[in-house]
Amino acid sequence: MGAVDIEKQAPNVARMRILGANVIKVTEGDATLKEAVDAAFEAYAREYKDAIYCIGSVVGPHPFPMMVRDFQSVVGVEAREQFLAMTGELPDAVVACVGGGSNSIGIFSGFLNDPVELYGVEPLGKGEELGNHAASLQYGEEGIMHGFRSVMLKDELGEPAPVYSIASGLDYPSSGPEHAFLRDIGRVKYDVINDEETVDAFYTLARSEGIIPAIESAHAVAYAIKLAQKMKKGSILINLSGRGDKDMDFIIEKYGI
Ligand SMILES: Cc1ncc(COP(=O)(O)O)c(C=O)c1O
Question: Average pLDDT in the 196-203 region?
């Protein structure tokens, strides 16, 4: 785990340690998600006889994106059933945040064959300039990294560019290959939400519904709030990919109560 994220998400690290995990700090580069994936790959390449590589997102070489998509699709299939049972109809739109792309591909999987609009929300961070965001589907070009070909934010040498998001789980310079495909065939619309809109949505959901979302998921909430204002009627299913417990210390310290 990147040293920066170890600090930002201290409760997650404490949980992993209590459960017996050895969390190794990665200090290279920006010391966030991309460097952690680099380090995990390097360790696996060295120790492949004794180690198993696991990844939590739909990135990396085949078959990891497919495996993670299939596991996460349980959420999409069950959400579809539950939405039908609760409301008697399908949602008009489904919204999910996109980092590497696993929670979004999971929820989208349940609705790909339905007349339902699908929206993937990437982090615009501090703005459009390269280095200030991690919106690879919005601003990236075709590229290869971590053993897969998809969209990629590149620096002037064609290497993965530095990326930024307030959400530790979204600052990755690419997204899974299936997202690039869904974007290109026009099945999913990808858009962006910045840090400020995200923090507003974090507090709005907490104070209006009593649900504290992960900062990653708050990107989807912010987008759904905007979409609802445009749609005026209908229903939106938001994938709350995580709880905000892990982010509370960071949010309180940075933004106050
Ligand atoms: C709560 C939460 N949501 C979303 C993400 C983004 O990842 P993905 O796009 O693979 O769902 C992360 C990544 O760590 C996360 O922790």
Answer: 98
Q: How far is the CA of 229 from the centre of ligand 1 (A)?
A: 26
Tokens of 47: 């120790």
The residues with which 145 forms a beta bridge, in sequence order, are: 148
- Burial of 23 (C-beta count, 10 Å sphere; 0-12/13-18/19+): exposed
The best mutation among 37, 98, 216, 248 to test binding of ligand 1, ranked by most ligand atoms within 8 Å of the C-beta, falls on: 216
Q: Is the CB of 97 under 6 A from ligand 1?
A: yes
Query: What integer pLDDT is reported at residue 257 of this predicted model?
Result: 75
Burial pattern 111-141, b for ≥16 Cβ within 10 A else e, equals beeeebbbbbbbbbbeeeebebbbbbbbbbe
Token couple for 165: 């998001």
What phi and psi, each to the nearest 5 degrees, are found at residue 14? -60, -45
Cis peptide before 162 (omega within 30 of 0): no
Place 138 in a pLDDT band, splitting at 50, 70 and 90. Answer: very high
Domains and CATH numbers, the chain: 1-54 (no CATH), 58-255 (3.40.50.1100)
Is 210 within 8 Å of 173 (Cβ atoms)? Answer: no
Model-level pTM greater than 0.90? yes
